[in-house]
Amino acid sequence: MDPLIDTCRRWLDEAEHVLVAAGAGLSAAAGYDYGDAARFAELFPALHKAGLRARYQLIGLPLPQPLLWGYWSVHVDDIRFGPGANPVYQQLREIVGGRDHFVMTSNVDGLFERNGFSRERIWTPQGDYARYQCELPCTRQTWASRPIVEAALATYDPESGTVTSPPTCPNCGGRVFLNVRKGPEFIEDPYVATGRRLAKWLEDRAASGGLVVLEIGAGLSTPTVIRRPAEAIVRGTSGARLIRVNQGHPRIPGDLSDRALSVPYDAATLLARCGKAAR
Q1: What is the pLDDT of residue 207?
Q2: Based on CB atoms within 10 Å of each CB, which residue in 176, 185, 209, 277 is the most buried?
Q3: What residues are designated binding site?
Q4: Looking at residue 228, what is its pLDDT?
C-alpha cells in the first residue's frame, strides 16, 4: 500500500469540485516532451544535423521565415493536430469522472479538449497552437492555424528543414506567428471569456466548499502561470485542498501543510496508481 496514493484517492473521493491545474510536466508524461532528443532527431533531421537536439531550444530562437515555419509547422502538426486519444489524459479524465470540474493549464497543445474535457471548461492563459495572429499585431483578430500549417507542410523539405511559402497576415500581409504568449504582442482575447467563467466558478465553489486543486506537472520555470495561482486559490478558499504532483519540485508551502499533499511522482505514475476514483 502507498499512503500517498491512498490519501490522494481519498481526497478526490471526498471532493465535490475539482480544479485541474496543469503544466508542461503533464504533457511530457503523455509523450510530448520538449526535451526528447530521439523524437527531435526523427522529426527534424535538418535541425539535428545543424547541432540542435530538443524542441525547447527552438523556443524564441530567431530563424529565417522558411526555416522557422519548417520547424513550427512540423511541431504543431505533431503536438496539436496529432490523431487519437492519449492514455495519460484519458486516465486523468476518468479520475475526474463526473465531478464538477474546471481546468486551467499553461499547455497550448489542446490535449485536454482532445481527451474528453469540455472546451468551455478549459482556460489556457498562454494561448493555443490551434490559432495564429499577426506579429505586429495589426488587428485583434486571430485565425485557425490548421490551414496554414497544412499549407506549409505541403511545401516542406525535410532535407533543408524549410518551407517554400511561409504564411503571412491575412489583414496586412506581414509576418505571423502562433497565438501563444511569447511577448507583449500576444492577443489574449480568445481566452478572456473562459478566464472569467473560471473566476465565477471559483467564486461559487468557495461558497459551497469541497474543492480540491489537482496540480500536475507545474514546475518552477514559469511558476506565476499555474503553480502560484493554484496555491493562492487553496489559500483563499475555506476548506480547499491542494494535491501537488511533481517529481522534481513537489515542495508545498508551509502555511498549507495541513491542506496540501506533496506527491513526488511523474504524472503518468500517479494517474496509473491512483486509478479510477470517479463517482
Answers
A1: 80
A2: 176
A3: 134, 138, 169, 172
A4: 98
Q: Is 258 left (phi over 0), alpha (psi -120 to 50) or beta?
A: alpha
pLDDT for the residue 274: 86
**Residue 166 contacts residue 152 (beta carbons within 8 Å):** yes
What 226-232 contacts at long range (C-beta under 8 Å, 24+ apart), as own/partner pairs, is 226/21, 226/22, 226/23, 226/104, 226/105, 226/106, 227/21, 227/23, 229/21, 229/104, 230/19, 230/21, 231/256
Cell 518552477: give the residue. 220
Q: Which positions make up the binding site for Zn(2+)?
A: 134, 138, 169, 172
* Other residues' Cβ atoms within 10 Å of the Cβ of residue 209: 12
CA 129 to chain centre: 10
Region 140-166: mean pLDDT is 97
Distances (CA, A) of 91 to 104, 115, 211, 217, 219: 17, 9, 20, 15, 21
pLDDT at 208: 82
Quick: pLDDT tens for 199-211: 999 999 888 889 9
Reported pTM: 0.95
User: What is the C-alpha to C-alpha distance for residues 251 and 19, in angstroms, rounded to an integer?
Assistant: 19
